[in-house]
Amino acid sequence: RVARPGDAQSRRAAPRWDGAPGVSSHRVAGRMGGGMQGRGELPTGIPLHWMTYFSVDDTDSTVDARTRAGGSVLKPPFDMMAGRMAVVQDPQGATFAVINPTAPEAN
User: Fold this and answer.
1) What per-residue confidence (pLDDT) applies to 94?
2) At residue 11, does pLDDT exceed 50?
3) How do the residues of the chain divide into helix, strand and coil, expressed in percent and rounded to 5?
4) H/E stretch holding 80
5) How confident is the model at residue 16 (pLDDT cuts 50, 70, 90)?
6) What's the pTM?
7) Sign of CA dihedral 56, 59, 62, 67
8) What angle do CA 48, 25, 100 make, to 5 degrees?
9) What is the per-residue pLDDT for 65?
10) How far apart are alpha carbons 86 and 66 in whole angstroms?
11) What is the dihedral of CA 53, 54, 55, 59, to 10 degrees?
12) Is 6 helix (H, G, I), strand (E, B) or coil?
């Protein structure tokens, strides 16, 4: 499902990438709209690339549905500073990430 402006999914918490080492966050109208990670932050052997992330309600069930639909899992669900995410591939070979973003912790 694609989030529409103003619906509950589009209002979900933005990923907590602000302040992550080597990550530059980009905001649109005050909301997280993207980010870039420096070349030096990539693990050895990972080429420079773009990665599209889709916000989902439940990372694990989304990955299960993707595999049932013929896709594959490149990186199983895991917890990280911005939420719970996974990297998957659809049956045609398109690679993308799914993430259930975590709200920023209160200061």
Assistant:
1) 93
2) no
3) 15, 35, 50
4) strand 72-80
5) low
6) 0.67
7) positive
8) 85
9) 95
10) 11
11) -90
12) coil
